[in-house]
Specification:
Number of strands: 2
Helix content: 25-40%
Largest sheet: 2 strands, parallel
Radius of gyration: 11 Å
Order of helices and strands: EHHHE
Distance between the termini: 20 Å
Strand order of the largest sheet: 1-2
């Protein structure tokens, strides 16, 4: 497991988020906005609640992301 390269969707900023497969500038902004409005993600699956991120995107992301409490 490559834990050192995981992007923390609760803590990392826009530039780190944009390194993720399928996440460009606007989706990175959406993730940050979701976090501001709803608080921290409790599980990586919750990223699917973010506008524009569905099951297909999640499948590409799930091995690259983590959530810190």
């Amino acid at each position: 497991e490559k834990t050192e390269s995981l992007v923390d969707i609760n803590r990392d900023g826009k530039e780190a988020l944009m390194t993720l497969n399928g996440i460009g500038s606007s989706k990175a902004d959406s993730i940050l906005k979701y976090r501001e409005e709803n608080g921290l993600f409790q599980a990586i699956e919750e990223i699917k609640n973010v506008s524009g991120i569905g099951d297909a995107t999640f499948e590409n992301l799930k091995d690259s992301i983590t959530v810190s409490p």
